[in-house]
Amino acid sequence: MIGCGASWMRSTWNPSPDELDRFACEHIEFEIRMLLQQFGLLERRHDLERRYDEDVADTRRNLGADGQALLEAVLVHLRLLDDFLGHPKQAEKQGADAGDDVFARHWDENWEPRRFLSKEERDRVNAQLVHLTARRLTHRGDIQPDELPGLVKECCLGLREFLRRVGVIDRRRLEAFGGAPERVAQYLDNKAACKWAA
User: Fold this and answer.
1) From CA 128, how far away is CA 139, in angstroms rounded?
2) What's the total number of domains in the chain?
3) Position with higher pLDDT, 19 vs 64
4) Is residue 1 part of a domain?
5) In the chain, % of residues over pLDDT 90
6) What is the reported pLDDT for 49?
C-alpha cells in the first residue's frame, strides 16, 4: 500500500496519499526541474562539449563564479536525487536511527534502490561540496563540467523508470509529479543524438 506502513523502510515519514501528492508536486518536481534548468544554463553558457585547455589541471576553475555556482547547484540536485532513488536505507527495516528521509519507496514499496552515481562519483561529489576536508589538498578528483552530461543522463534514466512505475501503480499519483515525466522524457529525447549521450 502506497503512503502507509513506513515500518518497511528506515524513514519515520508515514505520509497520507494527499501528503504524497503534495510532496511530489512541491518538492520532487521542483528538484527535477531545477536540475534540468540549471544544467541547461550551465551547458549553454559553457559549451560542455568543448574541450578545456589541457594545461589547466582543474577545468572547473575555468567556469567563473556564475558557472561554478551552477556546477555546484547541479551536483547538489544530483546527490539529492541519487539518495531519493538509491539510498539503501529505503530497503532496510525501521531502526532507532531513522530520520524523516523521503525515498522512491514511499511511492513504490517494491522499488529496489539503485544509485546512478557510482561510489567513486559520490565520494568525489561529497569531497567537492559542503564539506571542508583535508582531502581537498591532495584530492584532484572533482567532478568536471564535461562529466555532467553523463551524470544527468543517468539520473534521468533512473527517474524515468521510477515515474513509469508510479504511473503503473496509480496513474492519478503520477499526475501529482506535474511536468516531471515530460521534462525527463524531453531531456532524454533531446540528448539521444548527442555524441556524449551514447
Assistant:
1) 9
2) 1
3) 19
4) no
5) 55
6) 45
Using CB atoms within 10 Å of the CB of residue 182, give its burial: 0 to 12 exposed, 13 to 18 middle, 19+ buried: exposed
Cell 513509469 -> residue: 164
pTM for the model: 0.85
Higher pLDDT, 173 or 93: 173
Residue 181, CB-side half-sphere exposure with 13 Å CA sphere = 14
Structural domain boundaries enclosing 26: 6-197
127 in a domain, yes or no? yes
Judge contact between 84 and 103, C-beta under 8 A: yes
**Cross-strand bridge partners of residue 180:** none
User: How many whole angstroms separate alpha carbon 179 and alpha carbon 84?
Assistant: 18
Name the burial class of residue 58, with classes exposed (0-12), middle (13-18) and buried (19+) by CB atoms within 10 angstroms of its CB: exposed
Residues near 145 by Cβ (< 8 Å), separated by ≥ 6? Answer: 42, 46, 48, 52, 59, 60, 63, 67, 71
Task: Give the pLDDT score at 64.
Answer: 78
Q: How far apart are CA 106 and CA 109, in angstroms?
A: 6
For residue 23, tell me if it sits in a domain. yes
What are the pLDDT digits (tens) for 30-85?
Answer: 999 999 999 999 988 776 545 444 444 445 557 778 888 999 999 999 999 999 99
CB distance 28 to 77 below 8 Å: no
Query: Is residue 81 domain-resident?
Result: yes
